[in-house]
Amino acid sequence: MHAAALTYEIVNVEVSPISNIPPDLNALILECLAKDSNERIQSAAEVRRKLGVIAGEARSHTKLSAPHTAAQVERSAQESRGFLLVEKKWSAIFIIGLLALSFAALAVIHFTAPEELDLSKYQYTPIATDPEQEVQPAWSPDGKSIAYAKKVEGVFQIFIKNLDSPLPSRITNQAQNASQPFWSPDGNLIYFISKRCLYSIGLAGGEAKRILSSAEAATISPDGKTIAYWNNQRDSSTVYIASVNDTVGRRYYPAPFERPVGFTPNFIAFSPDGKRIGLSTWEPAGKGRVFWILPWPDGKNAKPVKMFEGINFSYPPSFSWMPDSRHILLSNDIVLMIGDGETGTVRQLTSAIEERFMSPNISPNGERIVVTVQRENYNIIQLPLDGSRPKLIMASSRDERSMSYTSAGNKAIYISNRSGDNEIWLRMNGVDVRPIITKKDFPNYTGQEIRAATISPDGNRVAFLHSSKECGSRIYVTSTEGGKPTRVLSGDYWEDNCSWSWDGKHLAANILEKESEKLVIAKVGAQERPFFLSRSDSIRGWVNWSPDNKWIACGIGKNIVLISSDGKTRRIIASPEVADADQYFLVWSRDGGTIFVAGSAGRGARLHAVDVKTGRSKKIAEYEDDIMFSTPSTFTLFGCLAPDGKSIVTTAVDYKSDIWILEGLPQK
């Protein structure tokens, strides 16, 4: 069950009695799990007292009288044996009961029931519903206008919509995406992020002013004097503090949330009273999602605190502070919740639906929420190498992605969520055969996801990425005939983007070890320490092995880097103009003489061919704005050569996102 679905059931679905246990114990468990806090048991001491009463009553029912006759003696012996069985049964019952009560206590501590969750009282009003994507809304300080990002000719620009006006006004003209808008406290400026820099611009538009570099997310204090931002440096990422007049910031201190670069998204915001900073980010090595509350001002006496650890977020949640500077509006992309920044409890506001609720922002008076409502659908497409239009291979109302072919082309695998969860499906000669990996293969993990998959050239095995809250991201291998998946490596790594050698004996992979990204080669089936080729300096684009097994190609920064399979030689080829793409991938030609590079950035998607010997590139095709290569997981976009060698197969996404206002919220 998905985390959101589980959360919904905890909050909304009444618990059924447990069979084969005494009624009194059942009643106690149900009392602990009562939705109404007034009907719920109030303390652990009361639980302990009631358990003692139930246990005493059980034993009193099994006491035996002294035997007199031979028949009575025999019957007494049988009853004594029965008494032992009863005692064992009651031991088991108490273990079950205590476990159930423990879960009940966790439910009470971490997720309180929404006492006034009545969806019929909610009112949804669309305010931006153009065909282009509209995202990341932010209320003005006076609550009369909303700033948001809208895609224009393939590039996100910042718009302002006055709620009394029928039409929005565009205020930016950036060459690169402008995103994450927020207002200055006096309402005279809009701040936004573009190409990892923070800019400001007046409400009438004009030329934007660059404020800070290396900023992926930012916030301004209520007094307008301080900017806190998430800074991506070469070796590590953390929160920085700067004056509005500074061009260089300093690290927030103390910073237990520092982590290596490469994991997004991150969200940061000052509380309305200016005394705290909320930070939603990843744990070190990307092994979990964490929400921090950072005292402001910082210093040696400041003590950052983790919050909402009982909630399993798939990604760092986007959020907005409530006006009381205590409660926080949270989104896990499926439902909206309100978290208490002091107790850590969370209250659900909306039910799970097909659409995703993203980037919620609470109005200054706390009565309305503006939110991005997004729908997305992933399909498998074919890019002809003659530059003609892409063709759909697989498209439905569900997601299909990451198709991978064998060298012979008779077998293929792909990822589908047709059953509700991501599964790896096997195809034979273009016909679906069966799923070979499902969630049943990983029964003991939470928040799990299959992020990418690739079939071996001979078609006998599949390598895939499996991520979970417990273990982060790891590479597994399974047979195409079925069977238990086996982990390829044995270390405590964050593992990503793997590629089969053409003899099917090794995998090249990108891993994170000791806060540093590295490119490695692992022998499949050995579970031994991998051979480290080099530090990878943050790989972008899929790791891809050449057909002659001599080179491993990957995107690093703005270059294509070829690393020899023995790690001794490193060659750099300047990447074509997809270097700034949000996601791009590399595919070798069958003869190994060409690397095809495809990516989506700015004004549409592009496909290039790079000559391996000369390093020269030529554009094969530039597609219209409606083509966007993407997958649900960042940096796991995958492409492969089609069986005929004349086209590339990859994944494209169809996005539709609007901005709505939600009213009728339950009041505290």
Task: Pick out its properties.
668 residues, Neuraminidase, disordered N terminus, Thrombin, subunit H
How would you explain this protein's 3D organization?
The protein has 668 residues and is mostly beta strands. The chain folds into 4 domains: 11-110; 129-212, Thrombin, subunit H (Beta Barrel), CATH 2.40.10; 214-357, TolB, C-terminal domain (Neuraminidase, 6 Propeller); 376-656, TolB, C-terminal domain (Neuraminidase). The protein contains 4 helices and 46 strands. The strands form 11 sheets. Strands 1, 22, 23, 24, 45 and 46 form a 6-stranded antiparallel beta sheet that branches. The chain has a 4-stranded antiparallel beta sheet with strand order 2-3-4-5, with no helix packed on it. The chain is globular and about 65 Å long. Mean pLDDT is 80; it is low at 1-13 and 57-116.
Number of helices: 4
* Biggest pleated-sheet summary: 6 strands, antiparallel
Beta strand count: 46
Globally, the shape reads: globular
Query: Taking all residues together, what is the mean pLDDT?
Result: 80
CATH class of the largest domain: Mainly Beta
- Pick out the low-confidence regions: 1-13, 57-116
Can you tell me the CATH architecture of the largest domain? 6 Propeller
Radius of gyration: 28 Å
Class derived from helix and strand content:
mainly beta
Number of domains: 4
What level of helicity do the residues show?
10-25%
- How far apart the termini lie comes to 30 Å
The CATH topology label of the largest domain is: Neuraminidase
Indicate the proportion of strand residues: 35-45%
CATH superfamily of the largest domain: TolB, C-terminal domain
